[in-house]
Amino acid sequence: MKLIKKFLAICFLLFGIPFSVGMMVEILNPKTTPKDKHDALAALTILTLPSTIVGGGLIWSLAQQKRKEQALLVASEEKRLNLVFLELIENNAGSITVFQLARNAEISIKEAKQYLDNKAKELNASFEVNEEGNILYRFSL
């Protein structure tokens, strides 16, 4: 469906924009006869402007659809990350390291650290340093 929308949008815009410009030039040209100006105005309002508007509307619709899909992907990823986080907290008696989250959630160390820092602020976690020198985030259960 997206491919059809893209194809139609391109067709409408490729027809509408150049011919709209051509009709505007014809209308604004002082050497054009009044009858030709009238015909150009009719062509502009009946053919080219609606085509351009439909093409623009299709492009706008595709952009909105893409934004919604991206928002759903982000929400889905946040939900997945929260589930991994909660499972790790539950399995480790409230303690978690950046490495554990990164490995289990399959995200980068940087993303895991940022996520845990945000969760620590949100949930008032405490911090400890374990035997290996890693920061241990402690969350109340």
Task: Write a structural description.
The chain has helices at residues 2-28, 34-91, 98-105, 109-123; strands spanning 95-97, 126-129, 135-138. It is mainly α. It has 2 domains: 1-74; 92-141, Winged helix-like DNA-binding domain superfamily/Winged helix DNA-binding domain (Arc Repressor Mutant, subunit A). Strand 2 (126-129) and strand 3 (135-138) form a beta hairpin. The longest helix is centred in the middle third of the chain and has 58 residues, at 34-91. The radius of gyration is 29 Å and the shape is rod-shaped.
Average pLDDT across residues? 92
Domain count, please report it: 2
Beta-strand residue percentage: 5-15%
Between the first and last Cα atoms, what is the distance in angstroms? 47 Å
Number of helices: 4
Helix content: over 70%
Tell me the series of helices and strands, N- to C-terminal.
Answer: HHEHHEE
Strand order of the largest sheet: 1-3-2
Quick structural overview:
The chain is mainly α and about 140 residues long. Helix content is about 75%, strand content about 10%. It has a three-stranded antiparallel β-sheet.
Write a concise keyword list for the protein shown above.
mainly alpha, 3 strands, Arc Repressor Mutant, subunit A, 141 residues
Topology of this structure?
Elements: H1 2-28, H2 34-91, E1 95-97, H3 98-105, H4 109-123, E2 126-129, E3 135-138
Antiparallel strand pairs: 1-3, 2-3
Helix pairs in contact: 1-2, 2-3, 3-4
